[in-house]
Fold this sequence. Notes:
The protein has 13 helices and 23 strands. It is α+β, with helices and mostly antiparallel strands. The strands form 8 sheets. It has a 4-stranded antiparallel sheet, with helices on one face. Strands 6-3-10-7 form a 4-stranded mixed sheet. Strands 14-20-17-18 form a 4-stranded antiparallel sheet, with helices on one face. Helix 3 crosses helix 10, helix 5 runs antiparallel to helix 10 and helix 7 (365-371) packs across helix 10. The protein is globular.
Amino acid sequence: MDKFFRTxxxxxxxxxxxxxxxxxxxxxxxxxxxxxWVELQSLYEASGIGxxxxxxxxxxxxxxxxxYISGKVIKSFNIDLDxxxxxxxxxxxxxxxxxxxxxxxxxxxxxxDMGNACVVSxxxxxxxxxxxxxxxxxxxxxxxxxxxxxxxCDQGQKAFKRLGxxxxxxxxxxxxxxxxxxxxxxxxxxxxxxxxxxxxxxLRTWAKRLEQVSSFMFANALxxxxxxxxxxxxxxxxxxxxxxxxxxxxEKFSLFNxxxxxxxxxxxxxxxESGSYGVLPSSNSYGKGNVRFIRATDLKNANxxxxxxxxxxxxxxxxxxxxxxxxxxMEIKGAISTCELAxxxxxxxxxxxxxxxxxxxxxxxxxLAYFLSSTIKELYCERVSVNNIISYLDLASLHELPIxxxxxxxxxxxxxxxxxINLAKKIAFALTRSAKTLVExxxxxxxxxxxxxxxxxxxxxxxxSLDLAILSKLSAKGxxxxxxxxxxxxxxxxxxxxxxxxxxxxxx
Length: 508
């Protein structure tokens, strides 16, 4: 934000807050309105703000409970349903009925991470939302997926944030939303862009189904071996090991001493060909070099978002921290829960000291990555991790981490599913990024409406050549920008995966 600036009195409206007249935001408004545009209110039938009253008394874990969506669980284009609190069905139908949301409604964060928007997906039959969220009940003639593509793009974000009021906790008033400018494009263009988000939603749904199938298969395999989940209970042990902290002897960790477990597991060190902790660059070197660098906080998205990396100078890294395709990357400090199988685009990237990198041997690396993300591994880490303030996994405990071996066909099944899950999430992210880039490129004039109209008409006639030509030139920085990394490294892989997801959906 510019601290000092002048503005022409001719552009003053009823708003007197300086943020509204920031030069870059005014210029963005002019750019959006330089072509055809409509007010947001022309696209929806009704709007509202989520529940404003205390909700804690309605929390419920019953089977028929309803997701309660706050701003924290809304990411660009998506809702983290696993991160939602849940409320009772009775409160949803009675006390909180005014904040009911349904599939195809558009949600926009109005406080906090202002402007992030998503469409309520079809997997949500009903849900409820908090006061941080504005919901829009869309007209049948409007494409909600095109709208969120605009709201999440650079120009849409600036336009929405311009509406913010307040200084300590800025927020957008529902009264300001109706007049938000939206680029007016043909129905063909709306569908072409919106379909990218719909396809991403389809891939995320497919990935979630694969995760559920894998969880079911893994749980059944463990049960056949003899595993029975035990609740946390204080116990007295006659024989102590080399740990004196009481939590180490909790009953829920007793499986690690059971015969079935010991006879079906092997220590991780047997599957490590080579490995090392990462490096710790000086704090003032971040962003100053040209070497890609992954911190533990980036690890969860490293295979999905190619822009999540930091950059450091070459002299701040070492070969021991260099990633190769197929390596396994484990978070060993903090949450010590994330584990990722390095895909090809991570090759040559370096890791920091909160990550342990190793090259597997004698085991399917995808199955090993799956197991190292399992609840069994998390239980082990919870038991042996040291330091109550910031947990970390020392090298000896890491080497002794027990890996359960299953039947070959089960390990192969879990490995294949993990690869498809990772690929689906990666392409879903690229598709939503492509939707934003398409809108940005339209507004900035890098693409024309006619190009997208022709591409959509060709797709409807069964010809994807124009779609392929456009997608192959998209990057995070725009359309046909030289020297940039394409959003899609393999377009054929995209089409193939979409066919697999569509077939799986049809078989449901």
